[in-house]
Design brief:
Order of helices and strands: EHEHEHEEEHHEH
CATH topology: Rossmann fold
Radius of gyration: 17 Å
Shape: globular
InterPro entries: Flavodoxin_fold, Flavoprotein-like_sf, NAD(P)H_dehydrogenase_qn
Helix content: 25-40%
GO molecular function, one term: NAD(P)H dehydrogenase (quinone) activity
Largest sheet: 5 strands, parallel
CATH class: Alpha Beta
Oligomer: single chain
Keywords: Oxidoreductase
Organism: Roseibium album
Family: Belongs to the NAD(P)H dehydrogenase (quinone) family.
Number of domains: 1
Structural class: alpha/beta
Strand content: 15-25%
């Protein structure tokens, strides 16, 4: 079976992202996958890279080192996060900045424009909560965060994108609608990787 890392990428405890991540994880586990769950809200680190010298960045705090070890362990990563101002929450973006480092997640090669992808052989899936209806996200706003996440973050490091799923609108949704969204996350977990 597959080793799956699920990141609840909401910076606060008890969010609907947490519920989606837990449902995905639970259902993936019922299919025999080995699943680890990390909650961004519980990770203690400075999200600011803090230097312009990308070869001599700050040391990883213990929580970031453990998260990096989870990334190298996994075969499939699932990132569940809210859409805030058309992008990632700042702490989630800081996690990417601090962990997906040159020499670890990718490597520049002299004479080549595109770096070597050091996390090849892994896949990725993204679940996004939003207040923006899906059709507005896609057709009016152009789904810029999807392009950034799939192409400029995940694929850049070697992850093969396997799905980008928008759960919306969250604001104003009722219990029945949220139950349906949880069921959808569970279905994605059952067919994981």
């Amino acid at each position: 079976m597959t080793r799956i890392l699920v990141l609840d990428g909401h910076p606060a405890n008890g969010s609907f992202c947490s519920a989606l991540a837990e449902e995905y994880s639970r259902e993936a586990g019922t299919k025999g996958h080995e699943v680890r769950v990390r909650h961004l809200s519980k990770l203690d680190f400075n999200p600011d890279y803090g230097t312009s010298d990308f070869d001599q960045g700050p040391q990883l705090e213990p929580d970031l080192q453990a998260f990096w070890e989870d990334i190298t362990w996994c075969e499939h990563i699932v990132i569940v996060h809210p859409l805030w101002w058309g992008g990632h929450p700042a702490k989630l973006k800081g996690l990417f900045d601090r962990v997906l480092l040159s020499g670890k997640a990718f490597k520049y090669v002299k004479g080549k424009t595109i770096p070597e992808k050091l996390l090849k052989g892994r896949s990725a899936e993204v679940l996004v909560t939003a207040d923006t209806p899906g059709w507005i996200f896609k057709w009016i706003y152009g789904a810029g965060i999807r392009k950034q996440t799939e192409k400029q973050i995940l694929a850049f490091c070697g992850f093969k994108p396997k799905g980008y799923h928008v759960f919306s609108p969250i604001h104003g949704s009722n219990d029945a609608e949220r139950t349906k969204m949880l069921s959808r996350a569970g279905h994605l977990g059952r067919r994981a990787a």
